[in-house]
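User: Structure with cytidine-5'-monophosphate, tokens only please.
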Amino acid sequence: MAEDVIIALDFKSAEETYAFLDRFGDEKPFVKIGMELYYAEGPSIVREIKKRGHKIFLDLKLHDIPNTVEKAMRVLSSLEVDMCNLHAAGTSRMMRAALKGLTREDGTRPLLIAVTQLTSTDEDALKNELLIGDTMENTVKSYALNAKNAGLDGVVCSPLEAGKVHEFCGNGFLTVTPGVRFPEGEQGDQKRIATPERARELGSDYIVVGRPVTAASDPVKAYERCLKEFLGR
Ligand code: C5P
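Assistant:
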């Protein structure tokens, strides 16, 4: 069920990011901080954006041995982010360790979302490089089920796959979906896309929107259009 719109802050510096967020005034969108911005600015960018009143999805896609991921997640949890993620390919043991690291002393923790197969990986790479003999659909399904059974909250997927994920893993298992475009907008490098309205109809729980908002001539208006079409408000 449509929960919120997350803006991907794909900027290269804190300066550019704050100039963008300042345009929203008292409105405090849920935002996603990815590797580029985090590696450029470090944890201080997370603390500052949190202090400004935004919810944060920290998109660092962890994938390492369970002990390392557990300790890294403990650090991310202390930054008070609201959502973070990892690669399901790290195995169920790694995912359970991640949850342990994320859980604070009072029992609260950020939502934890898994990446199944990156949308940039095609069937050819799956078969000939990763040596996975099964289809993409079965691989995504199996990784999503592993994530659910390990206790994670959901997966990142295309809006076009949200229905299937809910079918395998239940409606309570979250689908966080990039690949959102307005009908008249540029598709860019995204392949499997949907409009905010279609994403809602397909059952996405959160849409992640980057360029349709960040590159719009009026980003606030573009964001509000996403809210209206996705949440129906
Ligand atoms: O600009 P655009 O709307 O394409 O931005 C989508 C955001 O979602 C980017 O930050 C991109 O890295 C991220 N993402 C994605 N596809 C995935 C996982 C993350 O587009 N499978």
